[in-house]
Amino acid sequence: MALHKLQVDDFYDDSYKLIAIHCRVEDYRLAYLLNKHLELKLERKDADIDFKYLESSYSIFEWDNETEYVMWNLISNVCKKEEDSLHSTGTLFNDTEKVLKTFHLIPEFKKVDYFIKISDEIQNVDENRILNKLKAIPQIITSYTVDPLKIRSKDHLIF
Question: d(Cα 24, Cα 42) in Å, to the nearest integer?
Fold first, then answer.
């Protein structure tokens, strides 16, 4: 009897483009700037991307351009959370100190602040034109494309 194997990776389609953005402004401000300069209509989703096992959440803005069959997502890569620090018991003072912990959606790109994920079904989005427009925005330090196939934690970008 013949043994047939079915690979799950055969059905996974990487039909999206990923752009990394280095920018120190707040997420809502960046969404406004992208809407203005790229003529998008990004809106904040009701629910953030939430990872319970890390207890971190990442803001996400989305626009579904139905006329051009393109889904735009602006995703935060950084989550900063204040937690109680660990200290030994039985000390003279019972002061609890707070520690600021930083989590990343894509750990391979710890210096990236935001990602733009462009899911286009008919491959009509020009990445170079988008990058040129992004580099013209004064608040953005730099932006560049990222190959989704080279990211180990690309499952975090499925939502």
Answer: 19
pLDDT tens, position by position, 8-24: 544 445 578 999 999 99
Going along the chain from its start, the domains and CATH numbers come out as 15-83+96-157 (3.30.310)
Rounded Cα–Cα distance for residues 41 and 4 (Å): 46
The amino acid occupying position 113 is D
Helix (H, G, I), strand (E, B) or coil at 139: coil
Interval 48-95: pLDDT, tens: 888 766 578 899 999 999 888 899 999 999 998 887 776 656 666 666
> Can you tell me the distance from the alpha carbon of 19 to that of 147, in angstroms, rounded to the nearest whole number?
9
For 18-55, the DSSP string reads EEEEEE-S-HHHHHHHHHHHH----EE-SS-EEETTTT
Going through the chain in order, the beta strands assigned E by DSSP cover 16-23, 43-44, 49-51, 56-58, 60-65, 70-76, 78-84, 98-104, 114-120, 140-146
Count other Cβ atoms within 10 Å, centred on residue 63: 17
